[in-house]
Amino acid sequence: MSTQATTPFADGPAIGLICRNCQATYPLVAQHACWQCFGPLEVDYDADALARVTRESIEAGPDNMWRYAALLPAGIDPATRVTLDPGMTPLISADNLARALGMRKLWVKDDSANPTHSFKDRVVSVALTAAAQLGFERYACASTGNLANSVAAHAARAGKPSIVFIPHDLEPGKILTTAVYGGRLVAIEGSYDDVNRLCGELTETDEFESTAFVNVNVRPFYAEGSKTLGYEVAEQLGWRVPAQVVIPMASGELLTKVDKAFAELAEIGLVDDATCAVYGAQSSGCNPIATALRAGTDVITPVKPTGIAKSLNIGDPAAGPYAIDAVKRTGGWMADVDDDEIRAGIALLAETTGVFAETAGGVVVACLRKLLDEGRLDPEAETVIFNTGEGLKTLDAVSGGPTHQIKPSLRDARAAGLLG
Amino acid sequence: MSTQATTPFADGPAIGLICRNCQATYPLVAQHACWQCFGPLEVDYDADALARVTRESIEAGPDNMWRYAALLPAGIDPATRVTLDPGMTPLISADNLARALGMRKLWVKDDSANPTHSFKDRVVSVALTAAAQLGFERYACASTGNLANSVAAHAARAGKPSIVFIPHDLEPGKILTTAVYGGRLVAIEGSYDDVNRLCGELTETDEFESTAFVNVNVRPFYAEGSKTLGYEVAEQLGWRVPAQVVIPMASGELLTKVDKAFAELAEIGLVDDATCAVYGAQSSGCNPIATALRAGTDVITPVKPTGIAKSLNIGDPAAGPYAIDAVKRTGGWMADVDDDEIRAGIALLAETTGVFAETAGGVVVACLRKLLDEGRLDPEAETVIFNTGEGLKTLDAVSGGPTHQIKPSLRDARAAGLLG
Predict the structure, then answer these.
(1) Paired strand residues for B139
(2) Any chain A CB within 8 A of the CB of B351?
(3) Contact residues, chain A, for B399 at CB < 8 Å
(4) Co-location of A98 and A144 in the same domain
(5) How would you classify the pairing of strands B244-248 and B383-387?
């Protein structure tokens, strides 16, 4: 597949792939690592094409992430899109939560509102649209759960076969919610990092030649989908970026792409100023990026993940060094929180905003609190936190039930203290 | 509360409440039954005010259900809204599903995309906005699960206390997802109909004088929220109504309000023609409305509900006779399906559209199939089916898991047949 010509992407602004380390360039093919230095590739754009994008052209677009198609590597022609039309999720003014934390202005960008209820629908839509253009016939991924849901659902909508690889110990909600779409679902007796390694090997086999692994062989396209979260926050704030953002980290890629999105918007003149301190949030059970930052290095020491925030449990995070760079460059910081803090974060968010987040959202709220306590984050500066997933998928992480149980009578209601 | 003046609603098009049976009129107060004949009350509008609404005024509104505020009894002033801003959920072209069923054109209106992932967010937003205007200080409901989620989440966002009443045997997903918002949650040892009866009694007590039960004492306002589902379908089709709709029935009210929405749009000239055959879908475990229709009567004989479609398990459905009237008047019909058919409906919808529905959505798909098989529904006519809830809330209803389980090695992948 990797010898395919660039023709399929002729309408869009992408002109090639470029190595994030040595800047070697490649055509727009299914390739994720540099042949010179083994660095990760990312999409390279025609700066003039990006500069032609205006607020008006975006606002005239559909009410989903494809309004930013002219800033993405694939999908500028609606007929080519392989998508559930995610995006334009709510940016919620979290006034009660701000009060509880002593902050002046706080927003929650709630990506649980996407079709399969996580931000992964964004990256999958871009990856599979590119994959279809490149001629791939089957859709695949290595996943901690949310990505599996999204790939299987996208394949079902598109009428294509899917094969999804997950660690065998995922939350039941995430397994069932993949299985229901009817594709192949392969449980791997190992960690996510083991799953990811196996998928890398499978892409090299003849049998998987026409299979697009969204986060392996078409990863450069995939990763660009995360930019839309940043674009939306800026547009929803009236075309400006917030002073601070707090973003959950698994591979670290979401954080780097939101930072990139803000910078792009400033470069093409859609926002006046891209100054935004970027903060990263991890679970203490899998905190290799935060640990490296605190140790003053950008060399990530892989860990064996533990803890309830399974969607963030990537022990060997590919974009970790770039996340550290973005955080240091923007004056942000990182924190990590344990399982009890995560549970408390889920509850605090739900009780103050009506948003029921999965464990990754609990990580973000708890890290926000910790960063405030540590004096790292300014309570007076406008802040956006990202909820990337849905509480219904990680019910095991929360407990709770009826506060009262009674028979259906006024007498019982009175005896239970419900009538004063 | 019921003696409150109508002033709070002065800006909106609602002018009073009117009895659906004897047409007696009342002011806009918290009252749901007629003092003359005990018939149900509904909201009465100023026809001139409705007629001033244009396509342009709607399209200039927010991208949620409040774009139709000028057609609703409360919330025309954004500052008065008690809401999670639901609505404008996707209308999905279900081409694979249409092919599977031999239909020409089929759409899925997917209301699982609402903030708490069911259509109940619409009715709760209207009910609580009216309730706040009427001076109520606490928010409550009798619920089969989805409504509980929505009321508790709305109260959390608004910073108000909530008290929610549910049958004790609900799906764990729906109990936890209410409990997480932190309000009072009362499990009743009985059926939904028992819960509903108790809530009716509680509204008469002094201790609940300032408590708005969204589906009891402010029910006329609540019910109007369902109209927005009909408005959206028509707008999303380019301001026309489909030839056929299939709608799940619990109380039967959703069906009557979608029918009413289409008629209103025609009356005020926003669509040319409101001709739409309305079909109702029930579970065989709770089919009193479909049974009455087939028996040629509009007298509903209450049943004791059974079966997995718990969100539809209302054995004594208040709007049943009106649902039968709408179905007969429009040339539609009703069907009911058993638990195995419901499970098959969930799977068929997921595998062909990427939409994972709760049991109520499975009921609709299975009833669509049955109505086609019976020759009641025209496969050549454009049809919209309604998915009103989220599969993640009723995981117990589906089964499924990995199709393969292997160790993380190419050798194991080959042995499992994944490499050809």
Answers:
(1) B162, B212
(2) yes
(3) 176
(4) no
(5) parallel
